[in-house]
Specification:
The chain is mainly α. The protein is built from four helices and two strands; from the N terminus they run αββααα. Strand 1 and strand 2 form a beta hairpin. The longest helix is centred in the last third of the chain and has 34 residues. It is elongated, with a radius of gyration of 19 Å.
Length: 172
């Protein structure tokens, strides 16, 4: 299936560079925030909050590293996937003529998914730390809006990119 697809290096457009740089910077900021906050955290931190904003699950403060680890693995994994666009799924047959365009669109979609996913997981991590400090930053209604917004934004991003991808690549 992938054996006949061209393996080319896809050039980065300015938007791609901005997305990758912003994602990397956000991940570094999240790590710094957790490292700086960790020593001040109480031994027990919230791990789950119900819809009314009440903590209904707690765990050791080391669980924040588990969440940060998952966030990092997902972010780096999505970034790494952009290096292998020939293995992505496409709705068209990939040829020498359309490979660069399709690979670029697929990689850009992954970059948007990556930054949106990182923002969601960073929000969860930040909210847990704030709730552990006794701040009521983590509002259940806010989190619900964030999740709904994410759930709406992801399909819209996907549809926009699918529609854009349907256009013929520009000839050089």
């Amino acid at each position: 299936m992938y054996a006949n697809r061209p393996r080319i290096k896809v050039p980065l457009a300015p938007i791609d560079t901005i997305l990758e740089s912003t994602t990397a910077a956000l991940l570094v900021v999240l790590w710094v925030y957790v490292i700086v906050s960790y020593a001040s955290l109480p031994e027990i931190v919230p791990t789950h909050v119900d819809l009314s904003g009440q903590v209904d699950g707690t765990g050791n403060k080391t669980t924040i590293w588990f969440l940060l680890g998952i966030t990092t693995v997902v972010t780096i994994g999505l970034y790494a996937l952009t290096k292998f666009p020939h293995i992505h799924n496409y709705m068209v047959e990939i040829t020498e003529d359309n490979a660069e365009h399709n690979y670029q669109m697929s990689n850009r979609l992954l970059r948007f998914v990556n930054i949106l996913t990182l923002l969601l997981l960073a929000y969860v991590c930040y909210s847990i730390i704030q709730k552990a400090f006794g701040n009521d930053f983590f509002l259940a209604s806010t989190m619900m809006y964030v999740i709904i917004g994410y759930s709406v934004a992801m399909p819209i991003v996907l549809i926009v990119f699918m529609l854009k991808n349907q256009k013929a690549p520009k000839s050089k």
